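User: I'll paste a sequence; please echo it back and then give the predicted structure.

Assistant: Echoing your sequence first, then the prediction.
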Amino acid sequence: MFFGIVVRMYFDDHAPPHFHAYYGNDAAVLAIDTFEVLEGRLPKRALSLVREWAELHRDELREDWQLAEAHHALRPIPPLE
């Protein structure tokens, strides 16, 4: 969680590799490889912060996706500061 944005990844989720971002009543699903919004929406500023964070942690997001697929505990990823 950072700046009121919650990022989650779920076990048994569908491809392509992605994560969920929540901000207030808004939510979006973003692809890990491109940071494209696959579903939903976030306010412009929140989306910008999520993409900035994801760019810094792309490899960790990929690793957590593989862990989630294998039903292993995910590794925490540091927040954006």
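Residues 5-69 form one domain. The radius of gyration is 12 Å.
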